[in-house]
Amino acid sequence: MLSESLRFSRVVVIDDVTANLRLLESSLRVLGLREVKGFSDSAAGLEWLQNQHWDLLLDLDMPAPDGFEILRQLAARDRHCAPVILVTALNDVENRRKGLELGANDYVCKPLDLPELLLRVCNNLQLSEASQALQRERGELEDRVVRRTEQLGASYQAVIRCLARAADYKDNETGNHIMRIGESAALLARAYGMDAPWVELLRQAAPMHDVGKIGIPDSILCKPGKLTDDERLVMNTHAQIGHDILQDSAASPLLVLAAEIALHHHEKWDGSGYPQGLAGEAIPLSARIVALCDVYDALRSTRPYKPAWPAEKAQALIREQAGQHFDPALVQLMESLFEHIEGVHRRLADEPVSC
Fold first, then answer.
1. What is the structure's pLDDT at 349?
2. What local confidence, expressed as pLDDT, does residue 329 receive?
3. Nearest C-alpha neighbor of 4 from the set 25, 30, 33
4. pLDDT tens digits for 122-133?
5. What's residue 91's pLDDT?
6. What's the CATH superfamily of 6-141?
7. What are the CA-CA distances from residue 204 to residues 140, 162, 186, 258 (Å)?
8. For every residue of the chain, which 3-state class applies, written as one string?
9. For residues 156 and 110, what is the distance between their CA atoms, to the nearest angstrom?
10. In this structure, how many other beta carbons lie within 10 angstroms of the beta carbon of residue 227?
11. I want to staple 328 with a disulfide (CB 3.0 to 4.6 A). Which of 276, 303, 322, 351 is the partner?
12. Is the peptide bond before 63 cis (omega within 30 degrees of 0)?
């Protein structure tokens, strides 16, 4: 006997002999099945099968499309979830093999033993039900994994933002400076032709460029006047400190990129920067992009020790420093993006934060 859940399985019978069709339909209903669909027109049956959900097909002898052709047309189906029992008078070895090769789950030869056929129907429906249940569970598990991954990703990014803000609020820069750097760097990287995943990584990694300032004494970090030579040397260590904070996360492409940016975003195109004195394309692209965005944003922002520069003045300095401080190709790209970067500055504008 069928379980209660199997009684709602959708079973399809295709047979061009009306008497056979009626006999099988009535037998399946007596078995307890409530959804039995019969077709005497094999073409109509095939079209229905291709457009509807079903759990089992009884495929009998018929004119074209015959049972073998129907199997060919249903080759893409999941055989475990939508089994086919081929019922035919062609009981030679070659045709049995052909039916199974084309995707039949079971093969019953005429003359029919009706009780045996119904037992085979029950067995195949049980397998179909179990396979569909496994698929649902797998789908639900995949959904849970996706949701959990998204939650972990959101938490991970929140920690990163907090880490970046910890350095940002310790400094005397504006609270949204770090976010503007991420958005501006992404704009520039996209215009440079980098692929979308790398652009997104840069957008998330760039805000951590100054995380090493956590390790700089407040007396130096918040000094309103010009730093002494010794104080400048201490300040410059923030690049290495930031790298050291982030470098132990080799399993994370995001933090690997962030460590790279933290270490190199004060290098200069002409080799006069720090901490390693790299020049030209020896400076990682990520750091070249962030250096440009960082300086422009700093010029355009109000600080306790200076007013914000007008856009025209800041842009003029960026152009002047092409080939000296900055990658000239990136400067040329940035010129085409100034309007968009100014839009980011307006959208994420905020009040200065002093020490």
1. 84
2. 96
3. 33
4. 999 998 889 888
5. 77
6. Response regulator (3.40.50.2300)
7. 30, 12, 9, 8
8. CCCCCHHHCEEEEECCCHHHHHHHHHHHHHHCCCEEEEECCHHHHHHHHHHCCCCEEEECCCCCCCHHHHHHHCCCCCCCCCCEEEEECCCCHHHHHHHHHCCCCEEEECCCCHHHHHHHHHHHHHHHHHHHHHHHHHHHHHHHHHHHHHHHHHHHHHHHHHHHHHHHHHCCCCCCHHHHHHHHHHHHHHHHCCCHHHHHHHHHHHHHCCHHHHHCCHHHHCCCCCCCHHHHHHHHCHHHHHHHHHCCCCCCHHHHHHHHHHHHCCCCCCCCCCCCCCCHHHCCHHHHHHHHHHHHHHHHCCECCECCCCHHHHHHHHHHCECCCECHHHHHHHHCCHHHHHHHHHHCCCCCCCC
9. 64
10. 14
11. 322
12. no
Cα distance between residue 53 and residue 226, in whole Å = 75
Residue 200 corresponds to which tokens in the numbers above? 């997104």
The residues of the chain scoring below 70 in pLDDT are 1, 60-62, 153, 155-157, 159-175, 248-251, 350-355
Angle between helices 177-192 and 338-347 (to 10 degrees): 150
Per domain, the residue ranges of the chain are 6-141, 171-347
Q: Per CATH, the architecture of 171-347 is what?
A: Orthogonal Bundle (1.10)
What six digits make up the tokens of 354?
């002093």
Predicted local distance difference test score (pLDDT) of residue 223: 81
Instruction: Look up tokens 């010129």; give the residue.
Output: 335
In the prediction, which pLDDT does 355 show?
A: 45
